[in-house]
Amino acid sequence: MSILEKITNTEDYLLGMLLCDPGLLLTVPFDLLIFRKWHRVVALMLTQLNSGIKPDVFTLSEKFPDWDSLVFELELLKNDSKGESGNYKKYLKSLESNVTEVRVFTALKKTLSEIEAGTMPTQAAAGFSAKMMQLTSTANRQYSYNAKELMAGMDAKLKEISENKGKFQIKSGIEKLDRLYGSFHPSDLVVVGARPSIGKTAWGLTVASNIARGGYKVGFISTEMANEQISFRLNSLFSGVDGSKYRYANFDGDEWGRVANGIRDIGKLSINVCDKTEMKVSDVAMQCSAWKINGGLDIVVVDYLTRLKPEREKASKVVEVGEIVTAIKNMARDLRIPVLLLAQLNRAVTTRTDKRPTMADLRDSGVIEQEADSILLLSRATKDDEGARTAIFVDKNRHGQAGMALTVEFDEKTGRWF
Question: How many other C-beta atoms lie within 10 A of the C-beta of residue 139?
Fold first, then answer.
């Protein structure tokens, strides 16, 4: 029996059970699209149930002009499924599994056709990977909840947090920020903005290394710096050796030993770096998905927004950036991890007396403000930027206080924020 025949037979059996006991529809959440042959009928049954109507052959017949030709078949299905309601969940799971299998095969076939038609293999593979991530992340996921289910889920989450005593609370390691902000939440998009040369990458590496030291699995997407530069910066953070000395290995006294200790300590951490320069969101999603499958992934830092490429070029940069940010947010939800997205601010902040950055300074798109769960803005006192102070401004925070300015420190020699 082919997979398509299995799907059809399972659908028939399930519909027969539902005609015998329509209430089964409300016992287990599922994607209506897994039903193909009987999609219209099952959708109408669900609508009637939610309206307080118990579906049967007669209530359903009023909505289908061709119902007369279906009545006999449905009555047979109903008779064949009598007394089998106890197997409903088993057959529903089987249908979901078989439909997913067909979707994977269809996506793979489409990818091969695209390659044969001239699409670059890497581009086609990225599209296939993004589709697979969507299929696997949505399989058996519940999207609709009643009040009782919501509270049950909340109760379970609170117990998990209490029992683990903060084990799964991913903190930045910057004390003032953690006191105000708490921890980075799964599925959150945290946008971190700053002017060029203020220290976005240094902030991202500081936080990534702090989190990794806490035992978490961290991913770092670098579209600007090569892996050698990232390794030098990480080692400087750990060793305390001036980062400018790494370029020529110009170390003094005990610095060679401190560098060696840094190499040893960093090698024990779960930090993965991808330094591909030309990256689309689908490439980012494919890499993060691979990390999550191969060893796990708790959080990812993406450096930085405006160097990411759109899937297809648009006439407007604003539209491109908006689509990229929305896709990154969707990736965070699909993988259920926090994503720290570094972004550049425009020049408006340099014209203000107080040098205080705001959300409106984020380049190219207001969609950033809409999609981000949190927006952190970095400011640093420099010789060329009089009036600025070294601070983190929490301009948006869906989980707590916003509009706060946190005075912090920045060590230019090591690139450490603290």
Answer: 13
Residue-wise pLDDT tens digits, 76-100? 777 777 777 788 888 888 888 888 8
Kindly report the number of other CB atoms within 10 A of residue 176's CB atom: 15
Long-range CB contact pairs, 21-25, < 8 A, 24+? 21/85, 21/88, 22/48, 22/49, 22/54, 22/55, 22/56, 23/49, 24/85, 24/88, 25/49
In the numeric block, the tokens 């997913």 are attached to 100
Q: Does residue 159 have a pLDDT over 60?
A: yes
Local structure of 275: helix, strand or coil: coil
> Residue type at 351?
T
How far is 286 from 267, CA to CA, in rounded Å?
24
The model's pTM is 0.69
pLDDT in tens, 196-225: 889 999 999 999 999 999 999 999 999 989
Q: Using an 8 Å Cβ cutoff, are 11 and 35 in contact?
A: yes
> What sign results for the dihedral spanned by CA atoms 238, 239, 240, 245?
negative
pLDDT surpassing 80 at residue 315: no
Q: What is the CA radius of gyration of the chain?
A: 27
Distance in angstroms (rounded) separating the CA atoms of residues 209 and 90: 45
137 backbone dihedrals φ, ψ, rounded to 5°: -75, -25
Q: Name the residue among 303, 300, 335, 306 with its Cα closest to residue 322.
A: 306
Confidence of residue 387 (pLDDT cuts 50, 70, 90): low
What is the residue type of 168? Answer: F
CA 72/CA 305 separation, integer angstroms: 59
pLDDT given for residue 392 in this prediction:
93
Could you tell me where the DSSP H helices lie in 241-341?
255-267, 281-293, 317-335
DSSP string, 174-212: -HHHHHHH--BPTT-EEEEEE-TTSSHHHHHHHHHHHHH
Residues 282, 311 contacting (CB under 8 angstroms) = yes
* Chain segment 103-151, per-residue pLDDT in tens: 888 888 888 888 888 887 766 776 777 666 666 555 555 555 667 767 7
72: exposed, middle or buried (C-beta count within 10 Å: 0-12, 13-18, 19+)? exposed
Q: Give dist(CA 216, CA 208) in Å, integer.
A: 9
Q: Which of 408, 409, 411 is nearest to 176 (CA)?
A: 408
